[in-house]
Amino acid sequence: MSLVDMMKEAALDVIGTTNPVTWTYGTVVKSKPLEIYVHAKLTLLEEFLDVAESLTRHDRIVSIDYEYPKEWEKNDIGDEPKNAVSSRRDIGSAETVPYEEFKMKYAKLTFEDGLKINDKVILVRMQGGRKFLVADRYKEGKDIWSYPSEK
Questions:
Q1: How far, CA to CA in Å, does 100 sit from each of 66, 70, 105?
Q2: Which of 9, 19, 29, 124 could bond 129 through an S-S bridge, CB–CB 3.0 to 4.6 Å?
Q3: Residue 30 near residue 44, CB atoms below 8 Å
Q4: What pLDDT, on the 0 to 100 scale, is given for residue 6?
């Protein structure tokens, strides 16, 4: 065996014994406290999980620049063309009136969509294998363009 082959083998041994970062899939089985099922021999409890902020209740500052009517082509926002829709109603007014233009700068939005039972998630196992990062939700190929209101 050459010196180069021995060095390659030693490097692979080191990587194998240090449990490098890997990723896997899981399913949320309990949301509070958080539990994620990985396989028959591994269900992760909250103390072994770190969760990306986007999967928790969190605030964001946004600006809205809206015009009506506005048509979005299919390649602009997803799987099919969409028309911008808005309405406003003054208290005591009988009908809704669409906005023609609306601008709001630095509005605070609170995202409430935390992890729920049956959410499929991508997990990243930290080096050493004791902690997992819940990186994101995912959908299987057949469900990519299905939305809750369509089910």
A1: 8, 10, 17
A2: 19
A3: no
A4: 77
